[in-house]
Specification:
Length: 495
């Protein structure tokens, strides 16, 4: 018997199969109550996945069991009534945006096989209920922006154009993240109001774990691969800043402008994304040879590369580095919980890596300690409290000024090190590597992000200029230290 409903995928079913399918559809519709257009898209996702499974030799019954509507929970059935105030780190982002440039970042996982889009879409359909603070849209209140729940089908997209293109957050019900795929890569591009890099990795790992399960692999829930059939925990959406003990003193705020690299800024953002793939063991050993951490070693190299790419004769090279506060407080929050510090090197002192690395290492040790980060977090909380009852349209320019430490002009570049990614053993065998890409800035010509999985460290460079000075010098410095680098990434996105 042929099932032929308008707009739906057609199946050739015998009578027994048709009965199984019809019973499945009845059960599915018990779990969906949305706008008709959204219901259509979601039910079509199920049909596409069923078609893929059956074309791969799976029986209809096996396919329906793997796609059990129970995995949807009540997410698509319950009304969207929840909302979330922005955490103290996220508050700045919507108020500091210019020209609709949305602060974003991207985390990617590379699997050992090509991505199956039909199954990735179903993985997202099942996973999103575990991340209610991601299933939101940004709204403007009288005093603050906030995240409002939205119940919709969140779609995956094939990656065809520039990564980290701006989200259209001004549209009602718009997504605050996107999931894209290309060949064997799954990428989550996230608006920074939702989470930081650590939270983004939890989301990507959990999504990938469910994707692999839907392909028939046994993947356990551990190492931040969350159980999607478990109810979200309150501590996962907590604003840790509000719980922090207020300290006296300030730290890390109100810096002077930094020296900037040369090169014409492109109207296309980013104009290029590059990935330096390195052996993680060699990178670590070289840093230890210089009595440095991997972060301080790379900051030193970036400082010298930036000095080479800078035509200014006075001022300071300033590299901003985020600190994951979860290393001090074993928090389970998947919202923003990071602070920042800046490594400063006067231009006249930037004469060589070995000349600056001890000072860079010492600065990082002193500025990233719990005491300094606690002072900075306290200052963040106090600043938010000081303008709490000021109307949003008035406080927006004020907050821009008092949060000057986040302005691009006070930094030459950025280095965000997500550290070592750990996966359950039964999941890691299907994963090749990860990468982490920062969204483009307004002024800083090149920003860097590092992530390590097993024996592969990937340093990703986000560029807003086609000038090659920075990355060429950085590559030379790494190779000079005996670190082999495989350079991958995009071409320049402009002629």
């Amino acid at each position: 018997m042929k099932r032929n409903l308008p707009g739906q995928i057609r199946f050739e079913f015998n009578d027994e199969q048709q009965q199984l399918y019809d019973e499945f559809q009845l059960e599915l519709m018990k779990h969906i109550r949305m706008a008709k257009s959204q219901e259509y898209l979601l039910t079509e996702d199920f049909d596409r996945a069923i078609k893929y499974y059956m074309s791969s030799g799976m029986s209809l019954q096996q396919a329906l069991e793997r796609l059990s509507p129970e995995k949807l929970g009540g997410f698509y059935n319950h009304p969207a009534i929840g909302w979330y105030p922005l955490d103290n780190a996220a508050i700045i982002y919507p108020m500091s945006m210019r020209f609709k440039a949305v602060p974003m970042f991207r985390v990617s996982v590379y699997l050992k096989e090509e991505i199956v889009p039909e199954i990735l879409q179903m993985a997202l359909n099942f996973t999103i209920k575990r991340f209610p603070s991601f299933a939101t849209t940004l709204k403007k209140g009288f005093f603050w922006h906030y995240l409002d729940s939205t119940k919709r089908r969140f779609s995956i997209e094939p990656e065809k154009i520039i990564p980290l293109r701006s989200l259209k957050i001004e549209t009602t019900g718009s997504q605050s993240f996107r999931v894209v795929y290309y060949q064997n890569r799954i990428s989550a591009e996230l608006f920074h109001v939702l989470t930081d890099g650590s939270g983004g990795i939890v989301f990507l790992k959990t999504l990938t774990g469910e994707y692999l399960r839907l392909l028939g692999h046994d993947v356990t829930c551990s190492n931040d691969v969350l159980d999607i059939d478990e109810a979200p925990r309150m501590e996962e959406t907590v604003n840790e800043f509000a719980k922090s003990e207020l300290k006296e003193g300030t730290s890390g705020f109100m810096n002077n402008s930094a020296a900037q690299m040369s090169g014409r800024i492109s109207p296309i953002r980013p104009v290029q994304v590059l990935h330096f793939e390195m052996d993680s063991g060699k990178l670590l050993r070289k840093a230890r040879e210089k009595n440095a951490t991997v972060t301080s070693y790379l900051v030193s190299l970036m400082t010298m590369a930036a000095r080479f790419a800078c035509e200014e004769t006075s001022g300071e090279i300033k590299i901003q580095v985020p600190v994951n506060m979860r290393k001090f407080n074993k928090s389970r929050t998947i919202r923003n919980y990071s602070m920042y510090f800046t490594v400063d090197t006067p231009l006249q002192n930037a004469t060589g890596v070995d000349d600056i690395i001890d000072n860079v290492t010492q600065q990082i040790k002193e500025k990233s300690c719990l005491e300094e980060m606690s002072k900075m977090m306290s200052t963040t909380v106090k600043l938010v409290q000081s303008v709490k009852y000021v109307p949003l349209n008035i406080k927006k320019p004020v907050v821009r000024r008092v949060y000057g430490f986040l302005g691009d002009k006070v930094n030459t570049s950025f280095l965000s090190n997500l550290g070592v990614i750990r996966l359950p053993e039964d999941m890691g065998e299907y994963v090749e590597k990860f990468d982490f890409v920062l969204g483009p800035s307004d002024i800083c010509r090149a920003s860097c992000a590092l992530v390590t999985f097993k024996d592969i460290s990937v340093l990703s460079i986000t560029k807003i200029t086609a000038d090659v000075c920075f990355e060429e010098k950085l590559l030379q410095l790494l190779q000079k230290d005996g670190i082999e680098v495989e350079v991958k990434g995009s071409d320049v996105y402009e002629s």
